[in-house]
């Protein structure tokens, strides 16, 4: 599916699934964000989330946070970061309906992306979610695989890894940042 197809279709019946690190906030490669003081929104992310809030019916975050399972930070700290992040997004006109975090260490854990447990949890909490009317935005191939396993449209952000050759089985679109991608939808909406 090409970029334009999706941009012309998206409305409030659609759900946006967002990875966190490298999508909403700057990723600390090789380490974890263990305190709110280390959390920095990506350039333009707050503006992007305001725009996306006007377009999508539901917006949820699905994030692997193995640092908790490894004992590098507590679950309480992770919850604190999620809640401050959500508040800051709301203050800036955006919205996150819920943050799902997988703290498991094992790649086999059903909630750890690319496994789809967090998508199933979101559907339980928000039964109106239709995975075929959902977009997954992330910056790793495991995010793309998570999305594709649920038949979502996938957007790969090149914030950590280099751009992939398209067409790609797991990637429908590729962008440099959440804001760049959000702007492509906004333009299509005005045109359409
Ligand atoms: Mg990431």
Describe the structure.
This protein has one domain (3-191): Rossmann fold (3-Layer(aba) Sandwich), CATH 3.40.50.1000. It has helices at residues 3-9, 45-55, 66-69, 75-91, 117-125, 141-149, 178-191; strands at residues 15-18, 58-64, 98-102, 134-138, 153-157, 173-175. It is globular, with a radius of gyration of 15 Å. It is an alpha/beta fold and 192 residues long. It is 37% helix and 15% strand. Helix 1 crosses helix 7 and helix 2 (45-55) packs parallel to helix 7 (178-191). 36% of the residues are buried. The model has no long low-confidence stretch (mean pLDDT 94). The structure holds magnesium ion (MG). The site of magnesium ion (MG) has 8 residues, from loops.
Features:
binds magnesium ion; 6-stranded parallel β-sheet; alpha/beta; 192 residues; 7 helices; Rossmann fold
Top-tier CATH class? Alpha Beta
The count of β-strands is 6
CATH architecture: 3-Layer(aba) Sandwich
Proportion of residues in β-strands: 15-25%
* Rg measurement, Å: 15 Å
Helical content class:
25-40%
Q: How many independent structural domains? A: 1
Supply the helix-strand structural class: alpha/beta
List the secondary-structure elements in sequence, H or E.
HEHEHHEHEHEEH
Mean pLDDT score:
94
At CATH level 3, the topology is: Rossmann fold
What gap, in angstroms, lies between the N and C termini? 18 Å
Structure annotation, total helices: 7
Biggest sheet overview: 6 strands, parallel
User: What is the CATH superfamily classification?
Assistant: HAD superfamily/HAD-like
Biggest sheet: strand arrangement: 3-2-1-4-5-6
How does the overall form come out from the CA principal axes? globular
The distinct bound ligands, ions and cofactors come out as: magnesium ion
Instruction: Extract low-pLDDT stretches.
Output: none
């Amino acid at each position: 599916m090409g970029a334009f197809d999706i941009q012309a279709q998206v409305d409030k019946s659609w759900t946006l699934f967002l990875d966190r690190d490298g999508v909403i906030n700057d990723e600390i490669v090789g380490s974890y964000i263990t305190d709110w003081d280390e959390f920095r929104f990506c350039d333009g992310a707050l503006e992007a989330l305001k725009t996306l809030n006007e377009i999508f019916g539901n917006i949820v975050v699905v994030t692997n946070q193995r640092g908790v399972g490894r004992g590098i930070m507590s679950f309480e700290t992770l919850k604190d970061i999620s809640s401050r992040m959500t508040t800051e997004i709301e203050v800036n006109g955006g919205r996150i309906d819920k943050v799902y975090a997988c703290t498991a260490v094992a790649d086999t854990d059903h909630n750890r992306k690319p496994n789809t447990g967090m998508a199933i949890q979101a559907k339980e909490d928000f039964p109106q979610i239709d995975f075929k009317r959902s977009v997954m935005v992330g910056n790793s191939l495991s995010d793309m695989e998570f999305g594709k396993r649920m038949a979502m449209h996938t957007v790969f952000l090149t914030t950590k890894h280099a751009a992939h050759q398209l067409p790609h089985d797991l990637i429908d679109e590729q962008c440099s940042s959440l804001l760049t991608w959000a702007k492509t939808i906004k333009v299509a909406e005005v045109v359409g």
